[in-house]
Amino acid sequence: MMYTRFEDLPVWQLAAQIFERCAALGAHAPAMNPVFRHQLTSVALAIPNRIAQSYELGSRSEILENLNEAVDGLREIRSLLSMVGRTAWPQETITELAELKISVESCGLQLQSWIEIVRRSNGAEPAKTEIPSPERFHRLLANLPSTHPLRRSESQAE
Known about the structure:
Layout: H1 10-28, H2 34-56, H3 60-85, H4 91-119, H5 134-142, H6 149-157
Helix pairs in contact: 1-2, 1-4, 2-3, 3-4
């Protein structure tokens, strides 16, 4: 599928939703340390920006640098969410954290797939049509072990 704008990319849309959910989590959890809340939302905001830069930049090295930084940001969000999950919260918030972590893992897998495509391009500039589609992501998902959290969330959605 050909995408003409970064806003059309499913992975950018997912990253934007992750930011919105992190911001909402911070707003709904007043007991959360303000510094911690700021860190979570700042990192979450940087991810769709890195994806946008990756899409619009021309050089292979710049694309890889931005995609890798987006993946690093997703890892940081997972770590932050895991730290929040270690404290006492209402069940609703714990469920929200678990669902948000699944979205973060999904976004990371999609970005890893895009990184692999760019790496395999052997120095040639990867075409924007090679950005992983949701269908390709679901094929990658199918190859995960049945015990993986992303596989479990997929079967629950059906």
